[in-house]
Design goal:
Layout (H helix, E strand, L loop, with lengths): L2 E5 L29 E5 L7 H5 L6 E3 L25 E2 L1 H20 L20 H16 L6 H23 L23 H18 L9 H7 L1 H20 L1 E2 L2 E5 L10 E5 L3 E2 L8 H9 L44 H23 L3 H24 L11 H24 L7 H8 L1 H9 L2 H7 L2 E2 L1 E5 H4 L5
Helix pairs in contact: 2-3, 2-11, 2-12, 2-13, 3-5, 3-9, 4-5, 5-9, 7-9, 9-11, 10-11
């Protein structure tokens, strides 16, 4: 048995028509249900900030005429009509989202003590490097359910753009430098030095592109097989292919000239800034100094608006304590202290493809009602992505999170597909919900937890209450922020 997803309208849902723009919608059709549940998806973005902003909320599930996902319906032997049960959420996506939040908090707080789980200094893959693509994958799956039926494309587009703008503004506020972090009770940022890109900004870009694809690039074909599924969404796959070709062509085709940057010694602010020259003059380089991703960000965003503590400071060339941060070696190259944004423009273009892969997984939920079919159709492309990414890494296209290389996208999207299928099997099919209740709750409040914990808002607030001197606070007492 499986479950069928049918969208319902609410006061903020994208399926609602705007009478000033669109004609009045048809009444919702009632479909005959065999052994399948009927699952309704909704958008309650005005109710919870965490659900609107990351678009990682999930449709409610209304199990009609069944006692559980694996318990046969009694309707074949008992003709009494069962009252409609209250809607329930698709738990597996909440759990997946909550697990990703836990992973993010873990690597943020423990990564400094265990560099092996922290972000890879450059090439390679660690536990922390799965967090961003998992979030993008989840956004894609949710979009496939949210936009199953779109009454008015213009209204849906307008709402998607507004959500993107809200996410961008929130990202600038949280990651633009307004808060100065633990051990610093000051705040405020010079707009001329504000970081422009970040995690929420990247999610906003991927969300908007995937939403536009789902609203405007969806065929009218009836899905009866895997081939018809590809045919219905063929233009979305064309977008993914074009984006990938553009990214690879720019990454390996553009010429990177020599460049320079300057830094000011914090201990002697009155002295003139030091200028460092970086020698490049190459094409196709994917090292920290001369890659196209960094060049595009420096040219378009400006080097003063980039992240000032990049991961390559933990490489052996730049740290005597590698893979942890540490003092510069005596022979450190000139690029070691250069700003570099891990959520830059070109790398965010490639990140869009991860969201589109998640969107495809959402389509499988919508159009295939059997649990076995869903898991099979998730695992086959996930296996292809995983094997392809590992093979590309062996043949020279390295897995690299900072550049968001195509091989990195393949490996992480494949891993996300396997993990989602496993959680779906355990939670939504076999019903193991009790062990995942905490993850489910965290998944329902993902953005709030991200803001309060991952962005250090709660630690900063707690640290603001101290005894006589700022260093005498609760966090210092328990060993945090020393």
């Amino acid at each position: 048995m499986a479950m069928e997803y049918v969208p319902i309208n609410d006061a903020y849902g994208d399926e609602i028509e705007d009478s000033s723009v669109c004609t009045q919608a048809k009444h919702l059709r009632t479909k005959k249900m065999g052994n399948a549940d009927k699952i309704q998806d909704y958008d309650d973005g005005n109710k919870e900030l965490s659900q609107f902003a990351l678009q990682i909320y999930e449709p409610p599930i209304a199990n009609k005429g069944e006692e559980g996902p694996l318990i046969p319906s009694s309707s074949s032997t008992n003709h009494k009509q069962h009252p409609q049960q209250p809607p329930q959420r698709l738990v597996s996506l909440d759990v997946f989202r909550g697990l990703t939040i836990v992973l993010m908090i873990l690597v943020d707080d423990v990564g400094g003590l265990l560099p092996a789980i922290n972000h890879s200094p450059w090439n390679g893959l660690t536990l922390a490097d799965y967090v961003m693509p998992f979030f993008l994958f989840i956004v894609g799956v949710s979009l496939g359910l949210t936009y199953k039926r779109v009454s008015c494309r213009v209204t849906a587009t307008r709402k998607a753009i507004l959500r993107k703008l809200k996410l961008l503004m929130l990202g600038l506020f949280l990651q633009g430098g307004f808060f100065h972090g633990i051990n610093n009770l000051t705040y405020g940022v010079d707009i001329q030095q504000m970081r422009l890109m970040g995690i929420l900004q990247r999610i906003a870009i991927a969300y908007l592109v995937a939403a536009m694809c789902e609203i405007w690039l969806k065929g009218d074909d009836q899905v009866t097989s895997e081939l018809s599924l590809l045919r219905k969404y063929q233009f979305q796959w064309v977008v993914a292919l074009v984006v990938t070709i553009i990214y690879i062509s720019l990454l390996y085709g553009l010429y990177v000239p020599d460049w320079e940057y300057q830094i000011t010694d914090a201990t002697t602010s009155s002295s003139a800034p030091k200028i460092f020259a970086v020698k490049c003059g190459v094409r196709g380089d994917t090292g920290p100094a001369c890659n196209v991703v960094g060049m595009i960000d420096r040219k378009i965003l400006g080097i003063q608006h980039l992240y000032r503590k990049p991961v390559f400071e933990r490489t052996k060339q730049c740290s005597i304590k590698s893979p942890d941060y540490g003092p510069l070696p005596s022979d450190a190259p000139t690029w070691c202290q250069a700003p570099f944004d891990p959520e830059g423009l070109l790398s965010s273009v490639m990140a869009v493809v991860t969201c589109l892969v998640g969107l495809h997984n959402g389509h499988i939920i919508v159009h295939f009602k059997d649990h076995g079919d869903r898991i099979r159709l998730w695992l086959i492309p996930s296996s292809v992505f995983l094997v392809s990414g590992l093979a590309l890494d062996i043949f020279g296209m390295h897995v690299n999170k900072a550049l968001y290389t195509f091989s990195y996208m393949c490996v992480t999207a494949g891993a996300a597909g396997f993990l989602f299928a496993g959680i779906y099997l355990l939670v939504d099919i076999y019903g193991y919900r009790r062990p995942t209740l905490v993850l489910e709750w965290m998944g329902k409040h993902a953005l709030i937890i991200y803001i309060l914990v991952a962005c250090n808002i709660v630690p900063i607030i707690i640290q603001g209450f101290y005894w006589k001197h700022p260093q005498n606070n609760i966090l210092s007492l328990i060993g945090i922020g020393r």
